[in-house]
Amino acid sequence: MIEIKNLSKTYGKQKVVDDLSLTIPTGTIFGFLGPNGAGKTTAMKILVGINRPDTGQITIEGKDPSMASTREIIGFMPEEPGSYNQLTGLELIKFVNNLFNKNKQSSVDELENLLKKVGIYEARHKKIKNYSKGMKQRLGFAQALVNNPTYLFLDEPLEGLDPIGRREIKIILEELKKQGKTIFFNSHILADVENICDQIGIIHRGKLIYSGSVDGFREDKPLEEKFVEVIKSIS
Amino acid sequence: MNTLFVIAKNTFQQAIRDKILYGIILFAFLFIGSTIILSSLAIEENIFIIRTFGLAGIYVFGLIITIFLGASLIYEEVEKRTTYIMLAKPVTRTSLLIGKFLGLLSAVALTTLMMAIAYIAVIYSSGGGIDYPAIIAVGLQIMEMALLITILMLFSIFTTPLASTIYTIIILYIGHLLSLILEYASKTGGIAKTVLITIYYLAPNLEKFNIRNLVAHNIPLSWQEVTFSLGYALIYIAFIFYITRLVFNRKDL
Question: Which member of A33, A224, B60, B182 has the greatest number of CB atoms within 10 A?
């Protein structure tokens, strides 16, 4: 279970995340939505232990993500994941894999299977600088899965992918859900959120304005229409 | 410990695959090789000329490589969001910094040693035998580069590669002119004297790593001085690294 209690973060004079509290049960796909600059990415970076909050508390399986050991069970894909351009796709995955404890590391065969799963196996020996945007996105997704994480945090995972790529990633997310993984993801593509999420949270100007089921929010309207309506009514 | 090694290896791999680095090394080899032609122009003391220009070449090209690779060391990691990938794994910010430092130092040391081997070959083929003191000079140069890497790392946390390069070159310049600064301070008074004395004590004394003139003139080296320089480098590196760690730990990524 992921528990967020009264989380706040300020950059300069701007409060980017304001008293955010959420509970995400184990085994759910949680979509974290909000307009640009709402605080989604900031919240996610705190959730995975990259940055520290000003106030508030986060626990993942009862443990603080700022502790390196907690991050053994986490997978994280940043928005537009950058990479080491001089490395090949397989080398990057091996590098990321080696950052984990021996008992969490995958074998080379498992890593190659992972690259097959995300559709870049054929390009595994190519340098990343020669990858397309979509291939980099797939590689970013693969690196988040190397340790077979229990909790997966994805920041705009479907951005930059063609319809086939989006479909493939969504299928993988469904598979992961069946395996009991908890998936927390930020997205702008509301149609995708509507299809795959059990629960959503909507954040606007750092404040959580809704948390619950997708159906409970949209009230028989398409999610996008309802989302725009709610955000406009607040703005 | 494993994480440090993994990050160091990755940094090393990235550095040595940079094509610009190969260009710099090629120029360095050409320069070191050309000292044979320079020495042939002298009537005597041709070994002295090869030593002077050869060691200066290793230093200048080593410096170019260090600044070229070091100025963007942390900056690029943050800009390209690769820090996100690493710090969301069981990696602490301190181990990230140490790993990056060790990886870059390995790349700088390897390229410097390659230049040193070329230099020794040139001296040997010119009848100067194996230049053992030059190996110590190159070793101290690597310590100076290690110190410069920590300074570059500190700057690259909060400023652009160009600004890091400029600041480091200023420190490098001051660091080699500290004796002049002290001399100038003794001739002035008031605030200027206080400022100059402060610079003298705070700036790294990079002349402690310069024994190239002694080697070129065949003057025997003092082991006490060499050991002192090594100790000085280690203490200064630890000091700068401590500040770098403090700054990096406070930085929101």
Answer: A33
The burial class, CB within 10 Å (0-12 / 13-18 / 19+), for B98 is middle
Q: How far apart are the first and last CA of chain A?
A: 32
Q: Is A8 on the interface with B (CB under 8 A)?
A: no
Q: Model ipTM?
A: 0.88
CB B116 within 8 A of CB B135: yes
**Which pLDDT tens digits describe chain A residue by residue (235 residues)?**
999 999 999 998 889 999 999 999 999 999 999 988 889 999 999 999 999 999 999 999 999 998 888 999 999 999 888 788 889 999 999 999 999 988 778 889 999 999 999 999 999 999 999 999 889 999 999 999 999 999 999 998 888 888 888 888 888 998 998 999 999 999 878 888 888 888 999 999 999 999 999 888 888 888 888 888 888 888 7
The pair of three-digit structure tokens given for residue A182, joined into one six-digit string: 């908890």
> Quick one: DSSP state of residue A68?
G
CA-based nearest residue to A78, from A152, A21, A180:
A152
**Nearest-CA distance B117 → chain A (Å):** 27
Q: How confident is the model at residue B1 (pLDDT cuts 50, 70, 90)?
A: low
Write the DSSP symbol of residue A87. S
Shortest distance between the Cα of B24 and any Cα of chain A, in A, equals 18
Contact (CB<8Å) B85/A81: yes
Determine the Cα angle at B226 with ends B225 and B229, to 5°. Answer: 85
Q: From the CA of A146, how many Å to the nearest CA of chain B?
A: 11
Distances (CA, A) of B193 to B179, B198, B207: 14, 8, 21
Report pLDDT for A55.
94
- Contact yes or no for B88 and A153 at CB 8 A: yes
Cβ contact (<8 Å) for A82 and B86?
Answer: no
* Interval B164-178 mean pLDDT: 94
- Phi and psi dihedrals of A5, rounded to 5? -125, 120
Sheet holding A14-24, edge to edge: A14-24, A2-11, A55-60
Residue of B nearest to A81 (CA): B81
Question: Which pTM does this prediction carry?
Answer: 0.90
B164 close contact with A: CB closer than 8 A:
no
